Amino acid sequence: MITGQLIVGVSIAVAASLLGVFAILKRMSLVGDALSHVALPGIALALFFKINPFVGALAILLLAVIGIWFLEYRSQLSVDTIVGVFFTASLALGALFIPEFELLEALFGDISQVSNFDVILSVIFSLFLIIVLIAVHKKLALHMVSQEMAYSAGVRPKTLEFIYLMLFALGVALGIRFVGALLMGALIIIPAAAAKNVAKSLQGFMVLSSLFGAVSAVSGIYLAQIFHSAPGPIFILAGSVIFIISLGWRILVKR
Amino acid sequence: MENPILKVSNLTVAFGKEIVIDNLDFEIQKGDVLAVIGPNGAGKTTLFKALLGMIPYRGTVAWAAGVRIGYVPQRMEIETDVPLTVYEFLALRQSAGFSREKAEEAVASVLLPKEILNSGLGSVSVGQRQRILIAWALLGKPSVLLFDEPTADIDIRGQESIYQLLHHLQDKYNFTVILISHDLNIVYKYAEQVLCLNRQKICFGPPAEVLSPEQMQHLYGGEHAFYHHLGQHGHQH
């Protein structure tokens, strides 16, 4: 059912691409990568207890995010360091415990068999993510360009970072289904990185990133149909092609 | 004497075991300009963060009731190609009743053309960006402006005109200013009070009274550049 796949793919891609805009503004492009690895033990547990892998991934991601948030304020380490050190271990753990025949899917994703329930779940959670992100985007952007100025304007960083990390966890849990744990970071970053090459304004950055994400998702799903392969990797390749074009634009037009 | 707009008592800030500000007391009256001077690493920017309530401290920082603080940081860590226009940046302030007209007024009040609203925040010159930061703070209708002077990025003439602008804005909006400065000439010209800070309070009072060569020696540990400045100042007047 390709309509279902398209709905799932596009809604998840748009949500992830919007997250990417703020990951790039905050210069934490790799957090998505590492967080997606955390999802693996969650998927393993979900498979073991025979519950929906999305639920397993989301539960463990939310736990991880609370841990990151807590550690960041307690230890004064940067998010990148915390995530890099503690959570790549999760990949190893997940790889050990996920049954071999499920491992490929967990690592590279597969939405060729989406149920109606999956479609509804993805759309609701993606919409929720997009709406919350748009609601806080000004505060987030301000916090990311200058924490002190944000603070003087009444933005409280702890709450805001918590909301952002929670949304990140939700985005990663959603995207794991589509592109898998290994490529999840790319789903978040590539459309936003391409949009940054072209955009001059924050609004343009957000719109273009969503658009590039959606175009990559649609082409990934159609091409996967034609070549009988998993859509995740093709999605990432399509995004990379857009990125290369945007790089040409940046060099030739923007400067 | 009326109530001070800010009264700081026994302020101590420590990062781990290192004490950055040690038992600091001072106060400032409404409408005054207080300059904070001191060598690098003396705790000046840390003092600002404590005044903003961003970092934990011991002691008290008591602002008068209803004070709104505008903050102009030393610099912003942004990339030159950050996709954020000046207009959008001003909009991030989310000040009440913000509109295109308000944004145009804000940049006009810091003597920038309104066309700059469509430029990228990362692509304007350092001097222009500082004016934009001031405009940003003005949007919050501050009763106190905390101004952290950039160290090396701006040429001296540009810096002088920034202070003329601040002086002019202060007359217009009647706010109190606390500024961190590295230039004693600026301190003499624009500040009613000066706080010499080097972890502890070294001196406090009107610049002409408290900035003696001995105090400077104490504050900067014999940094000759400042004697030179002081000497020049003496010749001018």
From TrEMBL, chain A:
- How is this protein situated with respect to the membrane? Multi-pass membrane protein
Q: Where in the cell is it found?
A: Cell membrane; Membrane
UniProt cross-references to InterPro entries, sorted A to Z:
ABC_BtuC-like, ABC_TroCD
Q: What Pfam families does this protein's entry cite?
A: ABC-3
Which Gene3D superfamilies does its entry note? ABC transporter involved in vitamin B12 uptake, BtuC
Q: What keywords were assigned to this record?
A: Membrane, Transmembrane, Transmembrane helix, Transport
Q: Does the keyword Transmembrane helix apply?
A: yes
Record-level GO cellular component terms: ATP-binding cassette (ABC) transporter complex
> What's the domain of life for this entry?
Bacteria
Q: Which SUPFAM superfamilies match?
A: ABC transporter involved in vitamin B12 uptake, BtuC
Residues crossing the lipid bilayer are 6-25, 54-71, 78-99, 119-141, 162-190, 202-222, 234-252
The principal location of this protein is: membrane
One BP annotation, GO? transmembrane transport
Q: Which family does it belong to?
A: Belongs to the ABC-3 integral membrane protein family.
**Full protein name:** ABC transporter
From TrEMBL, chain B:
State whether keyword Transport applies: yes
Q: Which UniProt keywords apply?
A: ATP-binding, Nucleotide-binding, Transport
Spell out where the chain crosses the membrane. none
Family matches, as Pfam families: ABC_tran
Entry keyword Transport: yes
Q: Extract the SUPFAM superfamilies matched here.
A: P-loop containing nucleoside triphosphate hydrolases
- One GO molecular-function annotation for this sequence? ATP hydrolysis activity
Report the InterPro entries cross-referenced here: AAA+_ATPase, ABC_transporter-like_ATP-bd, Metal_Ion_Import_ABC, P-loop_NTPase
Q: Where is the ABC transporter domain?
A: 6-224
Name the domain of life this protein comes from: Bacteria
**Family (UniProt):** Belongs to the ABC transporter superfamily.
According to UniProt, the name of this protein is ABC transporter domain-containing protein
The source organism is Candidatus Harrisonbacteria bacterium RIFCSPLOWO2_02_FULL_45_10c
